[in-house]
From TrEMBL:
Subunit structure: Interacts with RSC1A1.
Principal cellular location given in the protein's record: membrane
Biological process (GO), any one: regulation of translational fidelity
Pfam entry (one): Sua5_yciO_yrdC
Catalytic reactions of this protein: L-threonine + hydrogencarbonate + ATP = L-threonylcarbamoyladenylate + diphosphate + H2O
Biological role: Cytoplasmic and mitochondrial threonylcarbamoyl-AMP synthase required for the formation of a threonylcarbamoyl group on adenosine at position 37 (t(6)A37) in tRNAs that read codons beginning with adenine. Catalyzes the conversion of L-threonine, HCO(3)(-)/CO(2) and ATP to give threonylcarbamoyl-AMP (TC-AMP) as the acyladenylate intermediate, with the release of diphosphate. Participates in t(6)A37 formation in cytoplasmic and mitochondrial tRNAs. May regulate the activity of some transporters.
Listed name of the protein: Threonylcarbamoyl-AMP synthase
InterPro entries: DHBP_synth_RibB-like_a/b_dom, Sua5-like_dom, TC-AMP_synthase_SUA5
GO CC entries: mitochondrion; plasma membrane
Topological relation to the membrane, as annotated: Peripheral membrane protein
Organism: Ornithodoros erraticus
Length: 244
């Protein structure tokens, strides 16, 4: 049986797509966050796994997440299944730059506001466009969008060329996770686990991103306080948005 190292990441996932190599998963790939050392190669490997229909675990700027390609029905369904998540509960998407937001959402806010919020530990909720996969969050006209302050995950989204469906790496309703060992029960269902080390140590760091609804013009509503609510509210008020 061939291994990842013997054939290389790109060839490995190509072989999986063509059923040329038996899958032995999960692979745990260590990465160094905050550096670009081997970062592009590892991000490309993550993108290859996603393009092959996989679901992967990734570090973000807040907690660990699991990701799949948002535009692929089978991948989205696998993600919901791994999370044991109700389709009533929406999943955010992750894009690599602000320009991508306008393809998937009707972001009727000043561009300068988006530039202040992103990249960062914020999930901004807007009305979705018709281009976004209807299988993702089928029971709402809204979508949450993330551009994490994490170079690795942004590069993964860039190499994929389409949004990632991104949610916390835990079974729905369980605690968020700050290390890969905290979601070890999910490993058998994942294609690759990218290990960025410990992302924090305290319960306060498990709160995830701040989720803010910007779908109503001129106003905002905090859906989840998260880890950046104070800074986020300050920015929104600077742009004269009123809290609902």
């Amino acid at each position: 049986m061939f291994t990842w190292k013997q054939v290389g990441a790109r060839a490995y996932w190509t072989a999986i797509r063509t059923k040329g190599i038996p899958r032995v998963m999960p692979r745990i790939i260590p990465i160094k966050l905050g550096t670009v050392q081997n970062g592009f190669c590892v991000a490309q490997s993550a993108a290859d796994a996603l393009k092959a229909g996989g679901v992967i675990a990734v570090p973000t700027d807040t907690i660990y997440g699991i990701a799949a390609l948002a535009q692929r029905n089978e991948s989205v369904e696998k993600l919901y299944g791994i999370k044991k998540r109700s389709y009533e509960k929406p999943i955010a998407i992750c894009v690599h730059e602000i320009a991508e937001i306008h393809r998937w959402a009707e972001a009727n806010v000043p561009e300068q506001l988006l530039q202040r919020l992103f990249p960062g530990a914020v999930t901004a909720v807007f009305h979705r466009t018709k281009d976004l996969n209807p299988t993702l969050n089928p029971n709402t006209s809204l979508v949450g969008i993330r551009i994490p302050n994490c170079h690795f995950i942004r590069q993964v989204a860039r190499y994929c060329g389409e949004p990632l469906a991104l949610t916390s790496a835990n079974v729905s309703s369980m605690n968020s996770t700050l290390s890969i060992h905290e979601f070890q029960e999910l490993w058998p269902q994942l294609d690759v686990v990218f290990d960025g080390g410990e992302l924090g140590s305290g319960d306060a760091e498990r709160t995830g991103s701040t989720v803010v609804d910007l779908s109503i013009s001129g106003s905002y509503r905090i859906i989840r306080e998260g880890c950046a609510s104070v800074e986020t509210k300050k920015i929104l008020q600077e742009f004269h948005l009123k809290e609902l």
